[in-house]
Sequence to fold (197 residues):
Amino acid sequence: MTDRPALRSQRLNQVTHAPHAELDALVKAHAPFESRDSFARFVAAQYLFQAELKALYNDPQLIAIVPDLAERCRAEQACLDLADLNSEVPAPVAGALHNPSLAEALGWIFVSEGSKLGAAFLIKRAVALGLSDSFGARHLGEPPAGRAEGWKQFTRILDGLALSPEQDAAAERGAVAAFERFTELLKHAYAATPALA
Fold:
């Protein structure tokens, strides 16, 4: 058994390593930056994921822990991106997260917030398709507080919470489930027939 890191954010990174690697490989396989059509499918998956998490980003209990949580949600930006790309907003996919515990919800938010770091690389690729943080790739744009600073603020709060071992385990399950769900939504978005508005 490898040593468990002291910080909760590091433990969450550790337990999600395998599903994260699987998701990265799947994204590469679908080549979202080969064309705008392919990118639109990627945005559809992002939208579905963010739309499912909207309730968490607006949850009063979670906002009490992370005060700027509501402003961190990217569902609206992804929705505007789909319009820029002449793509319809996809219908919800069965199996969305429903009423998670507070600790489990934090695991999901951890994955969503962490993806903003990777977005720094993705937006550079999107520029080659003629897209930007004000057209077609808004959801990949830099958060108001900055990517690194926003992430550091979030992980400082997360690492400072007093959670029981059971709650820690629930947060880890939530983070793994979030990667698995995004993987499922990505597969769905690329399997669906593209619907042009």
Residues 8-191 form a domain with the Heme Oxygenase; Chain A fold (CATH 1.20.910.10).
